Amino acid sequence: MNISRSGYRVFSANSTPASTELAKKITERLGVELGKSVVFQESNSETKVDLKESVRGQDVFIIQTIPRDVNTAIMELLVMTYALKSACARNIIGVVPYFPYSKQCKLRKRGSVVCKLLASMLAKAGASHVITMDLHQKEIQGFFSFPVDNLRASPFLIQYIQEEVRTQIRLLMTLKSFLTPLVCLRAQSFAERLRLGLAVMHGDAHHSESDMTDGRNSPPSTRTTAGHTGLELPLMMAKEKPPISVVGDVGGRIAIVVDDIIDDVEDFVAAAEALKERGAYKIYIMATHGLLSAEAPRLIEESAIDEVVVTNTVPHEVQKLQCSKIKTVDVSMILAEAIRRIHNGESMSYLFRNITVDD
Fold this sequence. Notes:
The protein is an alpha/beta fold. The chain is built from nine helices and 16 strands. The protein has a seven-stranded mixed beta sheet with strand order 10-9-8-11-13-15-16. It has a five-stranded parallel beta sheet with strand order 1-4-5-6-7, sandwiched between helices. A two-stranded antiparallel sheet has the order 2-3. Residues 16-126 form the Ribose-phosphate pyrophosphokinase N-terminal domain.
């Protein structure tokens, strides 16, 4: 039996090589072995977890990166959490660098807040703590009934800019379809830390995500009723979204577009084309989580984007084989330090030094 002298275990909730890569890097930094377990799907697609060592009375950290099959990854995390609870682990801490369903954190039309549901499921399964990174909305922390440490990737991304991008640059705020207050503040924070100017992109290439967040199309505008029809509300004029325009001088400069998640890239490609038309020298796209779904690698490879920089919170080795412009920044250092500090009961404030709420 592999008895760790450190008094805690680190498991990976996914047994595929791509998903265990981050877990292996974290355990190497901690100087411990990855816990022995088997995670697999039965012939009927049910998830099964088999722990191969005792965890009784110990702190257990479950590292779960989210591959393309999101729902399977969630079930792996939940089933392993419950298995550890049944095995009498003292504390069960989920290390989920990219928290799935984080975009579904607002009520849209007749939908549901799925992110809150997932937080409740983790608590019910037996989790006592979650370590994550750059939540899509910081308010998601309020969905949990236990502590959540929302780490930041901005120090690593800023370090990459300082070391790899040596030309005079101007940090560029991302386009309007992603232009939430959080992204605006993040771009401004990057610009202030790097002592750069700030340019803003206004307009939209496609639909805006915010159009679907407030239920403006529910109930339907016309309704057949008998008797009293009720109050007639003033009719709001429809919005007319202008084409993408750049506010600020980007001629001859390197433009950096920042966001927290890169998934569908059509809007980023449209932004890059607009920047090139305005004379930008190079265009970098930077984000914490590189989901890069569907045809994203091909679209990036064929676009005016020079480089896409993401962290390894999500496995994307397959996408890197399809697109040479995708670069990865390793964040295993801060995740390993968070695990060590939580187990030893040390303050987490060191990991947030000089970091503001806008980062």
